[in-house]
Write a structure and sequence with these properties.
Layout lengths: L6 E6 L3 E6 L2 E6 L11 E5 L2 E6 L1 H26 L13 H8 L4 H19 L5 E8 L25 H13 L5 E6 L7 H14 L3 E5 L5 H10 L3 E3 L7 H7 L5 H14 L2 E4 L2 E2 L6 H14 L3 E2 L2 E2 L16 H14 L6 E2 L1 H6 L3 H6 L5 E5 L3 H4 L15 H14 L10
Parallel strand pairs: 6-7, 6-15, 7-8, 8-9, 9-10, 10-12, 11-13, 14-15
Antiparallel strand pairs: 1-2, 1-4, 2-3, 4-5
The chain binds 5'-deoxyadenosine.
Length: 418
């Protein structure tokens, strides 16, 4: 299993490193100032160099992948052939987005999903980033109306992993399971001081080369900058909804502008940013979702992370009706059409509401997947919503099934666009 393809350094300038991948050149940043020379091999994730790799090992991996890439791409093209006629869709308007989101007939929805999949192939080929996620604490100071780990839910068992536990698990995920991108997620939990998080990032980065996404909610920008400088180059932070009124109702005491400003600053600073929103919120209209998509497009995320609300019985939204699989697939397809070059993650909530969710979402325009690495004793306690997909699946089973599916669909488990 391999979640990153080695690139060969072909030139360097003050800002960027130019890498060769099977004859194609890609640029990467080197914020960690890893010492590099021409001809050396590196791992880059999300456009950021995270590690070097020995020449012999790199050449062996590349030899394997060269053949594999050709086979996978052929499979992907075959599966995408004869799909619905593609429209000229660059930067579709709000009106067109609303039109797509209003589709209700089965045939219309099937057609936009096919069109989205074709656009996915055209714009980002068969690249499918595989991210591992470690949910390290379910304590949270917030009381979000949608979230099962909100502070006033007295019924869930709270847990926190120690810095050592998280760090060893991350090391295992990189060295033994070959992950090259990991999300470290928790409720907004200030039990971990900024310095604790810094030492966590340093300890992981001292041991291994990996793109770390922090998904820890709102911390100061100063804290995020320190985390970046320690080696966590990614941030996963959703804006949840673009509707300020809805936002303040759902997230008591929190300000929409604080969230958006933080996301913008992180992006500007150079973070690899994953962001998105929730669909299926009470009182959310199609126009609201169109605005969510437009806001997301304007934020230029490196990864789209959105998902359906799954009502949790211990929250004020307990009785909200869950959205249908068709509504979800239609939204994925619309996002792909609105932002053709985006990386769209199949999130766990998507897999929870659709059977064989990974497959359906990947065939509707999504291209990346997340695999939970949270230890089994904690997994079902990280209960943002009930019956989370994967809670009964071991990490290894999840990896095996996910890779099998990617290969079946002709997708390469790497963020390489070639
Ligand atoms: N259903 C689906 N997603 C949820 N999240 C929180 N609660 C729920 C729920 N009940 C999402 C939020 C948050 C992410 C970590 O989980 O969008 O940003």
């Amino acid at each position: 299993m391999c979640y990153a393809i080695p690139g060969k350094v072909i030139s360097l300038d003050a800002k960027l490193v130019y890498l060769d991948y099977f004859g194609k050149t890609r640029k990467a940043a080197n914020p960690g100032r890893i010492l590099l020379s021409i001809g050396e091999y590196v791992y880059a994730q999300g456009g950021i160099i995270v590690d070097t790799i020995r020449k012999e090992e790199a050449e062996q991996i590349l030899k394997f992948w060269k053949r594999r890439f050709t086979e996978l791409k052929k499979k992907d093209r075959d599966l995408t052939k004869n799909l619905w006629k593609e429209k000229q869709t660059n930067r579709i308007s709000r009106k067109e987005i609303i039109n797509f989101l209003s589709f209700e007939k089965k045939e219309e929805i099937t057609n936009i999903c096919k069109m989205a999949n074709k656009l996915r192939l055209k714009n980002i080929s068969n690249a499918s980033c595989v991210h591992g996620i470690i949910e390290f604490s379910n304590y949270c100071i917030n009381d979000c109306a949608y979230c099962g780990i909100r502070k006033s839910n007295a019924k869930i068992y709270r847990y926190r992993m120690t810095i050592e536990e998280i760090s060893s698990l991350a090391e295992y995920a990189v060295k033994k399971l070959n992950f090259r991108a990991l999300v470290l997620q928790s409720g907004e939990d200030f039990y971990y001081s900024d310095d604790d998080l810094l030492s966590l990032v340093r300890s992981i980065r001292d041991k291994c080369g990996v793109l770390l996404f922090m998904s820890i909610g709102e911390r100061s920008f100063e804290c995020y900058k320190k985390l970046f400088n320690a080696g966590a180059y990614g941030a996963l932070i959703r804006f949840e909804t673009s509707n300020e009124f809805l936002y303040s109702k759902l997230r008591p005491g929190k300000k929409f502008s604080d969230r958006i400003n933080l996301i913008k600053k992180l992006k500007e600073f150079g973070f690899v940013v994953a962001t998105g929103f929730l669909i299926g919120l009470p009182d959310q209209t199609i126009e609201n979702i169109a605005n969510d998509i437009l806001l997301m497009r304007s934020l230029k995320p490196d990864m789209v992370s959105f998902g359906p609300l799954i009502p949790h019985p211990e929250t004020p939204l307990a009785s909200v009706k869950k959205i249908s699989p068709e509504e979800l697939l239609k939204t994925i397809a619309t996002i792909r059409i609105a932002i053709p070059q985006s990386h769209i993650a199949v999130t766990t909530a998507m897999e929870t509401i659709i059977e064989n969710g990974k497959r359906h979402c990947l065939m509707a325009g999504a291209n990346s997947i997340m695999i939970s690495l949270t230890p089994s004793e904690y997994k079902n306690k990280y209960e943002l919503y009930p019956n989370k997909f994967g809670d009964n699946l071991s990490t290894k089973e999840n990896i095996v099934q996910s890779l099998k599916l990617l290969y079946e669909l002709g997708r390469a488990p790497t963020d390489l666009v070639s």
